[in-house]
Amino acid sequence: MIKVSLPDGSVREYEEGASPFDVAKSISNSLAKKALAARVDGELRDLMRPLEGDAKVEIVTANDDDGLELIRHDAAHVLAQAVQDLYPDTQVTIGPVIDDGFYYDFAREEPFSTEDFEKIEKKMAEIVDADYPIVREVWDKDEAIETFKKIGEDYKAQIIDDIIPPGEAITVYRQGDWFDLCRGPHLPSTGKLPKAFKLMKLAGAYWRGDSKNEMLQRMYGTAWANEKDLKAHLTRLEEAEKRDHRKLGAQLDLFHLQPEAQGSVFWHPKGFMIWRQLEAYIRRAQDEDGYVEVKTPQLLDSVFWEKSGHWDKFRENMFVVPDFIPNTDEEEVKIPAETSLMALKPMNCPAHVQIFKNAQRSYRDLPIRMAEFGCCHRNEAHGALHGLMRVRQMTQDDAHIFCREDQIGEETLRFLKLFSRVYGDFGLSDISYKLATRPEVRGGTDENWDRAEKALADALDAAGLPFDIAEGEGAFYGPKLEFHLTDAIGRTWQCGTFQLDYVLPERLDAEYTGSDGAKHRPVMLHRAVFGTFERFMGILIENYAGTFPMWLSPVQVVVAAITDAANDYAEEAAAALRKAGLRVETDLRNEKINYKVREHSVQKVPIIAVVGGREAEERTLALRRLGSNAQQMISLDDACAELAQEALAPDLKRD
Question: Which pTM does this prediction carry?
Answer without folding.
Answer: 0.82
